[in-house]
Amino acid sequence: MTKTLITIGIWAALGWLTGSWLGASTGWAVFAFGLLLMILVSGLQLSRISKWVRNIEEPPPPSVGPWDEVLAPIYRKLRQDRKEIDELTRQVDVIMLAAEALPDGAITLNESMLLTWCNQTACDHIGLQLEKDRNHSIFNILRAPEFNRYARQSTWPGPVLLHLQNEGQEKSLLVQLAPYGVGRFLIVTRDVTQVEKLETTRKDFVANVSHELRTPLTVLSGFLETMRDMPAESLSAEQKERYQNMMLEQAERMQAIVADLLTLSTLESAPTASGEPVRMSTVIHEALRQAQILSRGQHVFIENIAEDLCVTGMETELASAVSNLLTNAIRYTPKDGTITVSWYRTESGHACYSVQDTGIGIASQDIPRLTERFYRVDRGRSRATGGTGLGLAITKHVAMRHNAELTIHSRLGAGSIFSVAFPPNRVSIEES
């Protein structure tokens, strides 16, 4: 405004000077010309300002006369607001990335319980599709009756456990609903499927251990009570020896169960085994020698063993796995049956240890559960032959620790093949 007044004053002065020299009409003409020129310049400046207004992200046009003092603070304020908006946008992006990285699912709802946002974990848990399910009622999305009753409460002091089917798989979810902000709600979901399975496994394990130890303890207790209550002279030396042998057998059975449980615990304490190259032919020959003693000449053994093939690992663990598969084959193969033991290198570079028998075989529905602790296809036969029910569980853990894979192929009444395949990076050839 000051510049405008000064400019008008200058043209007025020029008009007065010109009027004094050339006459009043000429002076007024000069003054009018000045005002007209100012109007034209002002129009041009307004035109440039109008163009800038359509794209205020750019700096304002320079030299727009009196408008400079108006546009400069406006542009500074716009630039400051833009920086603040950019910073807030970055913070929101960081928060959204953090929400996406959460191991738990997160779902936001408005005051009408309509879905407004969810992270990818929640999509995986419940099967949500954000673009499709946005602004839909959570009660139409999550149709579990337990959730319906839970969500319609006035307060939610704790989570609710839901069992849902998602893509053919059953999932166990802990769902917690909580209010936040004004008229907003947050749902947090946590997948506890594996935790429930582990808890079930733990309960089954405790029950199985109790059951497995109860039988030999009952036998021991019964014999000890019998020998205590009966007069010493009423038992013959032959009966005493028979009772003592049976008690020793049950004590050894409990000892074997405890030893296998300790072995399993040790194997589970570390995910992998490093070790050193182990000459497997030596381990297998020693296991075969012990197996033939256990067989008492009742089985035919066929050997197909590569003598120079080694595996990097723990020799004691590998010996346990080798022995367990041989012992199982003997226990479940009838007299005069054939047991074929192979140790060879495959075309893909893997090293494979396999035990094939002509035994009773295994039904297809039992094969997936064979490596479970204390799982037996034929409990009576396993106990009669001294099995603890932990051999295949130990073998599976030994294989896992050596990055190997245990596979089982069997047909009821036609025998079985148990194989452990070691990866190429653990296989080596011993130089002569």
Automatic annotation (TrEMBL):
<dbReference type="Pfam" id="PF11808">
    <property type="entry name" value="PhoR"/>
</dbReference>
<keyword id="KW-0597">Phosphoprotein</keyword>
<dbReference type="InterPro" id="IPR035965">
    <property type="entry name" value="PAS-like_dom_sf"/>
</dbReference>
<keyword id="KW-0418">Kinase</keyword>
<dbReference type="GO" id="GO:0005524">
    <property type="term" value="F:ATP binding"/>
</dbReference>
<keyword id="KW-0902">Two-component regulatory system</keyword>
<dbReference type="InterPro" id="IPR005467">
    <property type="entry name" value="His_kinase_dom"/>
</dbReference>
<comment type="function">
    <text>Member of the two-component regulatory system PhoR/PhoB involved in the phosphate regulon genes expression. PhoR may function as a membrane-associated protein kinase that phosphorylates PhoB in response to environmental signals.</text>
</comment>
<dbReference type="InterPro" id="IPR036097">
    <property type="entry name" value="HisK_dim/P_sf"/>
</dbReference>
<dbReference type="Pfam" id="PF00512">
    <property type="entry name" value="HisKA"/>
</dbReference>
<keyword id="KW-0808">Transferase</keyword>
<keyword id="KW-0592">Phosphate transport</keyword>
<dbReference type="Pfam" id="PF02518">
    <property type="entry name" value="HATPase_c"/>
</dbReference>
<keyword id="KW-0472">Membrane</keyword>
<keyword id="KW-1133">Transmembrane helix</keyword>
<dbReference type="InterPro" id="IPR014310">
    <property type="entry name" value="Sig_transdc_His_kinase_PhoR"/>
</dbReference>
<feature type="domain" description="Histidine kinase">
    <location>
        <begin position="208"/>
        <end position="426"/>
    </location>
</feature>
<keyword id="KW-0547">Nucleotide-binding</keyword>
<dbReference type="InterPro" id="IPR003661">
    <property type="entry name" value="HisK_dim/P_dom"/>
</dbReference>
<dbReference type="InterPro" id="IPR003594">
    <property type="entry name" value="HATPase_dom"/>
</dbReference>
<dbReference type="GO" id="GO:0016036">
    <property type="term" value="P:cellular response to phosphate starvation"/>
</dbReference>
<keyword id="KW-1003">Cell membrane</keyword>
<dbReference type="InterPro" id="IPR050351">
    <property type="entry name" value="BphY/WalK/GraS-like"/>
</dbReference>
<protein>
    <recommendedName>
        <fullName>Phosphate regulon sensor protein PhoR</fullName>
        <ecNumber>2.7.13.3</ecNumber>
    </recommendedName>
</protein>
<keyword id="KW-0067">ATP-binding</keyword>
<dbReference type="InterPro" id="IPR021766">
    <property type="entry name" value="PhoR_N"/>
</dbReference>
<dbReference type="InterPro" id="IPR036890">
    <property type="entry name" value="HATPase_C_sf"/>
</dbReference>
<keyword id="KW-0813">Transport</keyword>
<dbReference type="GO" id="GO:0004721">
    <property type="term" value="F:phosphoprotein phosphatase activity"/>
</dbReference>
<keyword id="KW-0812">Transmembrane</keyword>
<feature type="transmembrane region" description="Helical">
    <location>
        <begin position="28"/>
        <end position="46"/>
    </location>
</feature>
<dbReference type="InterPro" id="IPR000014">
    <property type="entry name" value="PAS"/>
</dbReference>
<dbReference type="GO" id="GO:0000155">
    <property type="term" value="F:phosphorelay sensor kinase activity"/>
</dbReference>
<dbReference type="GO" id="GO:0006817">
    <property type="term" value="P:phosphate ion transport"/>
</dbReference>
<dbReference type="InterPro" id="IPR004358">
    <property type="entry name" value="Sig_transdc_His_kin-like_C"/>
</dbReference>
<dbReference type="GO" id="GO:0005886">
    <property type="term" value="C:plasma membrane"/>
</dbReference>
